[in-house]
Each structure stands twice: as C-alpha cells, then as structure tokens.
Amino acid sequence: MHTNPIYNIHLLAKKGEQVNGNDSKVKFFFDWSIMPKSRYKVSFTMLGARNRLRGENVCLLYIDLGNSKSYEPTGNNRLATSNLLGHIFPNSVDGTNTSSNYLFSKKTCNSEIYLDSLPKSNEIIVEFLSSTVVQGPFRDDDSPSLPVGSNLGWIVSLSLEQLD
C-alpha cells in the first residue's frame, strides 16, 4: 500500500515575530526548499494557553503561506481560494463557560485545504480573528483590550500531505 509523504510544520507563537505589534498576527520564517515541489493537502491542529473565554466564542484561523493559492471545498462541487484555514474552539478547563478556557482545534474539526504549489515566499503569517460580523483580533472576554494571542502561548501544527 502506497502512502504519500507527510510533512509536519510546528509553529510556536513565542518563536514568531508579531506583525505591526499585533499579537494575534504572527510571522514565521520557513524554508520551503526542503520540500518537493508538488501539490499538497493541508490539515492542522492547534492548542492555546488558558484565557478567559465564554463557551460561545469561536475563533477563525487565517494563514498566509506566501502567495500559494489554497483551496477550500464549497457547495456545488467547486473550490474557492482563501486564507481561512479553519475554526478554533474554546474548551473549558473546569466545565463552566465563564472560567479559564483554552483554544484548540483537532485535525477532524475542519476540512482540509489544498495547495496547488509550494509557497513562493519563505514567510508564514498566522492570524487569529473573531468570528463576529466585524472581524478583528480575537480577544479575551475579561480584558477586551487584550488580544487572546497576547501571551503568545499557542502552537499551530500544519500537516502537508504530498499529492503528486
């Protein structure tokens, strides 16, 4: 049985660089030349530090992989280009909606996206946005002026499965 090679990239927030002082938007350097030029199926997991979040909060994870088109499945058998990687969910530490929570996403929480080629830039930009009508940095409920990423205690793990 043939299996496609899988490449895992782990982005630790504390190792990245804040973009324009915005701690819910972090930039990383990654040398894509270590991977074969190909198409890839991308999935991810995410785990964040404790925050004061209410259970109804959902965060959107956007990722800019440096000029490579990413595709997400949509209705009517078509694909749309997007930087949206998926949803991040709060999980309660003690079972209540108003206590300390942490953000997480499992591999099975979101659909995969597809890259038609390797990125052309060696920068990866990860951004957490609110899922509300007015999108902005995803924020801690108890400190609205404080973005959730402010403690920079998260890790996003990308899994890229080579398709060709």
Query: What is the number of E strands?
Result: 12
Give the count of structural domains.
1
Biggest sheet character: 12 strands, antiparallel
Low-confidence stretches: none
SSE order, one letter for each helix or strand: EEEEEEEEEEEE
Strand content: over 45%
- CATH class membership: Mainly Beta
CATH topology: Jelly Rolls
Structural class: mainly beta
Radius of gyration: 16 Å
* Number of discrete helical segments: 0
Give the second-level CATH assignment, the architecture.
Sandwich
> Taking all residues together, what is the mean pLDDT?
75
- Terminal Cα separation, in Å? 16 Å
Concise account of the structure shown:
The protein is mostly beta strands. The chain has strands at 6-12, 17-19, 22-29, 40-52, 59-64, 70-74, 78-81, 84-92, 100-105, 113-115, 123-130, 154-162.
Task: Give an account of the 3D structure.
- The protein is mainly beta and 164 residues long.
- It has one domain (6-162): Jelly Rolls.
- Helices cover 0% and strands 49% of the residues.
- Strands 1, 2, 3, 4, 5, 6, 7, 8, 9, 10, 11 and 12 form a twelve-stranded antiparallel beta sheet that branches.
- A hairpin with a 2-residue loop joins strand 2 and strand 3.
